[in-house]
């Protein structure tokens, strides 16, 4: 994996993304305010669960799985909010639809990139199985040659660049720019919807940036998102972002070969075993083989579980997009061109 050390990224040179969060005019009704507060409080609780109990939890596959589960829950909540608002798609302004569809297609691109990287990393497990098979069942010099070849192949495989992950940066940059939400006029329900979308997008962009940084080993893919202090989740988000980003940058500056914890554990086992294989030490330490097998299994299981969550998020995003497009096609409020161009 490539690594580049870069300063923290600054954003929003194009204007104030928070202008719609302090709407002028009449206050929201108690009912709408309750819907918005409930949504934001749930988001705050969800973000709070992402605050690691210790720095060693950051960028473990279990933490990344929790983060992806959190995203799925948030996107489920926004669908529930849309239903509770009793705001049919036919009443949406075209710019709201554009925001939703533009974001959704970019999320699908990110999910495809993440799935490809998880699958690619998991394919490396085959090399480790070959190492264990060669050393446990082989004999003579041949088993060391085979094991050494498999270890070299594993190193090359896990350190290779993934073009799809490299392309995530451009996708994330465009999503950051879209955080400057459309200004809502004459629609209190629209104001609630757009403010809720803002929270969804902040959480989504940030978590996707952490995933991208984990696989690229580059701080240039790690975002520092400034957020308005108006939402009820703002303080929790700022705390989580500060802790997680700080630890990731520290890990990247330490010269570690990878910052994904389970992958790092396998790498450590490989480095311990490699000199024995290279020197043809016979017998190879049983504990070293056992350790490699255990760590490889943890990595493989963790990658499988995270891949399932990414796939679930992909299906949820695709389903929501399809439902919206179907509703648009059946609505007289939107022109055929508007739908066809998306």
From TrEMBL:
Gene Ontology, cellular component aspect: membrane
Subcellular locations according to the entry: Membrane
Primary localisation category: membrane
Top-level taxon in the UniProt lineage: Eukaryota
The keyword Flavoprotein belongs to this UniProt entry's keyword annotation: no
Membrane topology (UniProt): Single-pass membrane protein
Protein name, UniProt field: Protein BPS1, chloroplastic
InterPro entries, sorted: ROH1-like
The UniProt record lists the keyword Nucleotide-binding: no
Keyword field: Membrane, Transmembrane, Transmembrane helix
Family per record: Belongs to the ROH1 family.
């Amino acid at each position: 994996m490539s690594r580049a050390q870069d300063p923290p990224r600054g954003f929003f040179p194009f204007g104030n993304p928070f202008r719609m969060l302090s709407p002028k005019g009449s206050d929201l009704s108690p009912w709408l305010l309750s819907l918005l507060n409930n949504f934001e409080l749930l988001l705050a609780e969800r973000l709070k669960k992402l605050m690691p109990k210790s720095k060693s939890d950051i960028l473990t596959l279990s933490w990344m799985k929790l983060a992806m589960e959190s995203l799925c829950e948030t996107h489920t909540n926004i669908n529930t909010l849309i239903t509770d608002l009793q705001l049919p798609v036919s009443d949406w302004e075209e710019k709201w639809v554009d925001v939703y569809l533009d974001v959704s297609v970019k999320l699908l691109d990110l999910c495809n990139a993440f799935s490809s990287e998880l699958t690619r990393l998991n394919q490396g497990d085959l090399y480790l199985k070959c190492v264990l098979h060669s050393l446990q069942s082989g004999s003579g010099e041949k088993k060391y040659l085979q094991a050494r070849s498999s270890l070299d192949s594993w190193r090359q495989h896990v350190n290779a660049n993934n073009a799809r992950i490299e392309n995530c940066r451009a996708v994330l940059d465009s999503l950051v720019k879209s955080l400057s939400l459309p200004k809502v006029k004459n629609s209190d329900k629209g104001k609630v919807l757009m403010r809720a979308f803002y929270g969804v997008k902040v959480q989504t962009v940030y978590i996707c940036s952490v995933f991208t940084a984990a696989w690229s080993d580059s701080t240039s893919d790690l975002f520092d998102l400034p957020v308005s202090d108006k939402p009820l989740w703002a303080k929790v988000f700022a705390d989580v972002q500060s802790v997680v980003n700080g630890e990731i940058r520290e890990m990247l500056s330490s010269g570690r070969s990878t910052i994904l914890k389970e992958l790092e554990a396998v790498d450590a086992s490989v480095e311990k075993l490699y000199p024995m294989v290279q020197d043809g030490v016979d017998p190879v330490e049983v504990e070293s083989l056992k350790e490699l097998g255990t760590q490889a299994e943890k990595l493989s299981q963790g990658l499988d579980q995270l891949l399932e969550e990414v796939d679930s998020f992909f299906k949820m995003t695709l389903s929501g997009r399809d439902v919206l497009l179907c509703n648009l096609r059946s609505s007289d409020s939107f022109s055929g061109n508007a739908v066809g161009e998306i």
